[in-house]
Every structure is written in structure tokens, then in C-alpha cells.
Amino acid sequence: MATPPVEHARPRPDAGPRRLTVRSRRVPVSARLSVRTAALGAVVAALALAAAAWTMTLGEFPVPLSDVLASTFGVGTADPAHDFVVRTLRLPRVLAALLAGAALAASGAVFQGLVRNPLVAPDVIGVNAGASLVAVYLIVVTGSALLLPAGAFAGALVTAFAVYAFTWRRGISGSRLVLVGIGVNAVLGSLTTLILVRYPVEEIAPAVLWTTGTLYGADWRDVTVLVVGLGVLLPPAFWLTRHLTALQLGDDTARSLGVRAEPARAALITVGAGLAATAVAVAGPIGFVALIAPHIARMLAGPLTGGVLLLSASVGALLLAASDLVAQHAFAAVSLPAGLVTAAVGAPYFLFLLYRSNRLS
Fold first, then answer.
1. Which residues of 272-309 are buried (b: 16+ CB within 10 A; e: fewer)?
2. pLDDT in tens, 21-56
3. Taking CA 249 as the corner, what is the angle to CA 248 and CA 253, rounded to the nearest 5 degrees?
4. What are phi and psi of 34, to 5 degrees?
5. What is the pLDDT of residue 174?
6. How far from the centroid of its chain's Cα atoms is residue 300's Cα?
7. Which long-range contacts (CB under 8 A, 24 or more apart) does 10-13 make?
């Protein structure tokens, strides 16, 4: 008897978005990425790199794009001055902008997904202020920046758990978290100001510049801090996003699905605070990138997943790179801190989100 042919299953046109499945043979981790989300992430990342390349061509010493690319990729140019300007002065700054923006956006995505509130961000709920307080103390009082990354991480982590503890009432309310966070933010900001006013102007000048949120003077050591921080914290953040849906359904439902609610929350808070602290340690308390970027990513690709987290990081990199470009070159007479540009864009957007949230509630 002839064996009937075997038909291979084919995806139906209405079977939903195509997804890429990524599995590791060494560790029991797998993830699915929407093809659309991956494509959007690639486009946004390309735009961020284009903004960074354009930034390196501008300035008092213009450099052709061809020389920028040659110096960036180690080929070298006919003019040693171009190599020096690109590799020593401009490349570390644009890389710091890209990486700090990605870290802030990923942190914002984690916190917003954890409490299901688009108004939550590390700079809104005081996490950045906690990192800033410790960082300013280290800069002004000890005069050393060697412990800045570790100190900023400790300050951000303590603040994040304190805000979470003050907010917890048989669950987390997003609006209550925002209100508590704003109060904590104000208290920590006052303590930072108290430190600054107790010392002479010449001693606090570096800290004052740093608190504006600037990438001025970023060097390869700062890039190393950001690369290590993202390399350590972004993979766990990507993996932990799979627990967010279960946590949003409530602790009992999460436990029935095999998710240990409190350890998962603690891990998410630690990772989110660490990502914010990594960026703050290098660039200062740059505001609103962590608020805006995840919201844009969700508008483009839907609810938070691992893929949307990476898309948020790409959007954050683009936002901060573009903001630093505007800050450096939009005003011919003066170079502004990137934090002023992000605040000018982000503050009205935050008010819009607050207004819309009040109307929906």
C-alpha cells in the first residue's frame, strides 16, 4: 500500500505576527521576538548610529564623514588630527550618549511594566535622585570619582526599595507610587542641594555641572562603565520580562503559574535601579528619557516583552544621542547640557501623560 504524502504545517495568514524563537543550549532560557519588533529595533538603532555619526562630523573642527567612519573602525586617516579628534574627543561622548540612553530607557521600561503605569520612571520616583545624592557626596566630600558607579548603584537601589516599601499596601498602586516617589525625589534633591551649598564654589563646580545631566568630558573609562553595566544588567532584564504578565495578574495567579512574586519583584527592582544608576554615574541625572522611550516603544510594538524592552533601549539611545546633538550645536554661542534638552521635551510630555491618565481614571 502506498504511503500517503505528509503535509508540513504552514502558518496561516491570520495566525498572528511571525516570531523568532531564540534558545540557549547551555542555559535553560528561551525567548521569542516578534519579527516586526526586531525590524523596528534595527531601524531605530540605525537612526541612533546615524545621529551619532553626524554629531562627530560637527564642531569647531569639522571632520568629513568618511574620516569619521575610518577613525571609528580603526582604519585611520591621512590626517592624524582627525583621528585624535574622533577617537579621543568625540567617539567616547557619542558612545556614552547611546549607551546611557539605552540604560535609562530599559530601566524605565522595567519600572513601568512592574507597576503598569506609564508615568513611572526612575527619575520621577526618586531613583535617579538617590544615585545623584551619593554621587555628589563622593565628588564634593571625598574628591574621588573612583567609587562613583558603585555609590550611584547603592543610592539608586536603596531609594528604589524604600519607595516600593512606602507604597506597598496589599499591592502597588501606580498613582500612589508616583506620589511617594515625587516626595522622596524632593527630599533627596534638598539633601543634594544642602551638600552643595556647604562648600566653596570652586569645589562644587564639577558636581554642579554633573547634576545638570551632561556628557561633557565623557571618556573611555565612562564608556567601559556603561558597557559593563549594560552587559551585566540588560540580559537579566530581558529574561525577567517574562514574569511581568504573571505579576500583573496578581500574586496568587503568579504563584499558580510558577512565579515567585516577591523574589521576581525584587529582581526587577534591582535590575531597573542598576540600569538607571549606571547611566546616572556617567551622565548625571538626565531626565525624561526613561519616561518617554518605553512609551514610544509600546506605541510602536505593543505591551512590554523582551523584544519591546530592547526596542525601548534603542529608542532611548536615539533620544539621548539626538538631544546631545541639539545641545552641542543648536546654539552657536554655547553648548548646553543634554539634560536641559531632554527636560524641555520631556516635561510637557509628562504633563500630557498625567492629563490623559486623569481623564481615563
1. bbbbbbbbbbbbbbbbbbbbbbbbbbbebbeebbbbbb
2. 555 455 444 455 678 888 999 999 999 999 999 999
3. 130
4. -65, 135
5. 64
6. 18
7. none
